[in-house]
Design brief:
By secondary structure, this protein is an alpha/beta fold. It is 33% helix and 17% strand. It has 10 helices and 13 strands. It has an 8-stranded parallel β-barrel, surrounded by 5 helices. A hairpin with a 4-residue loop joins strand 5 and strand 6. Helix 3 packs parallel to helix 4, helix 4 runs parallel beside helix 5 and helix 6 crosses helix 7. The protein is globular and about 50 Å long. The N terminus is likely disordered.
């Protein structure tokens, strides 16, 4: 990571090759540590007002860091220095858990993609609450909550409610993650009856906290329509579209690596899920568009398709600290 805008080309020519020479999870942890220590900064963002106020929250700009990068909120006060207008921490679960065995993060460099099967590795909701207490991120913070692996599916609603209860006061909005492919059975919770049960348990805790549900790009259009109907019925704030994909149809060749695929191969299917969900919802829900944002043009298209906010992850890994300012310059 670099401090000076004039040194930004060094990311692609020097720093990224060094990081990409390391195992992906090692590189990720080093980058996160650099951010948390304040060693990473982006070039100055464009000097114009890109702020917007949505669901009672003011966002200095509409580009955020997607969940999964800062799972335990260790760098929550530093993401504004990279130009982000908001950050989503997590996914966090009620119980601390190590996640899946390593290796569990893979690069497909020639296709500008990642495959992860991390499995919600995190220190748990209680640890995150302690970490967020007294912190000032300087930008809105979303908290993404998931189901603990040890929790049976029929008790998932209790698991989500616990995390929601102790973390909601540190969050500007909360996202219910029922769409990761890396926790056994989790995607079954996208079924409308299971989802309704989870959301009812959260509404019993707090009726007013802005609440989103994160959906998979692999759902049928009928299943997306059902989720939108439940979101409207439960008066949710909106939908995050989308998570990673288990499909390999968009790859030139299947590398045979299990897990969620992100990056350039996800762009089209994530866009289509966003477009259709927005079509179903009309103006009743807010949308956070995520998945396959690898260029400023990809981000602009998300807004055209109905996103109110856009998140990045894999595109930022490949493009480096200049990526957010470049997107903001294009908006």
């Amino acid at each position: 990571m670099v401090h000076d805008a004039g040194l930004m080309p060094l990311y692609e020519s020097l720093l990224r090759p060094l990081l990409f020479g390391l195992p992906p999870e090692t590189a990720h942890n080093l980058a996160l540590r650099a951010v948390s220590m304040g060693l990473a900064r982006a070039p100055k963002s464009p000097d114009r007002d890109l702020s917007r106020t949505l669901f009672g929250v003011k966002f200095p700009n509409p580009i955020g860091l997607a969940a999964g990068f800062d799972k335990d909120a260790v760098a929550v006060e530093k993401w504004k220095d990279l130009g982000f207008g908001f950050v989503e921490v997590g996914t966090v679960t009620r119980h601390a858990q190590p996640g899946n065995p390593k290796p569990r993060l893979f690069r497909l460099k020639d296709q500008r993609a990642l495959v992860n099967r991390m499995g919600f590795n995190n220190h748990g909701a209680d640890a995150m609450a302690r970490r967020l207490d007294g912190k000032n991120a300087g930008i809105p913070v979303g908290v993404n909550i998931g189901k603990s692996k040890v929790t049976p599916l029929d008790q998932a609603h209790e698991d989500y409610a616990y995390s929601f209860r102790i973390l909601k006061d540190f969050a500007d909005y909360v996202v219910v993650n029922v769409s990761s492919p890396n926790t056994p059975g989790l995607r079954e919770l996208q079924d409308k009856d299971s989802l309704r049960k989870i959301l009812e348990s959260l509404k019993e805790v707090d009726q007013s906290k802005p609440l989103f549900v994160k959906v998979a790009p692999d759902l049928t259009l009928g299943a997306i329509e059902d989720i939108v109907a439940v979101a409207k019925e439960m008066y949710l704030t909106g939908i995050v579209a989308t998570n990673t994909t288990v499909s390999r149809d968009s790859l030139k060749a299947d590398p045979g690596i299990e897990g969620g695929l992100s990056g350039a191969p996800l762009t089209d299917i994530a866009d289509e899920a966003l477009r259709f969900a927005k079509e179903c919802a009309g103006d009743d829900l807010r949308f956070i568009g995520v998945g396959g944002v690898m260029s400023p043009e990809d981000a602009k298209r998300k807004f055209t398709l109905g996103a109110d906010l856009v998140q990045i992850y894999t595109g930022w890994v490949y493009a480096g600290p200049s990526f957010v300012p470049n997107i903001l310059s294009a908006l």
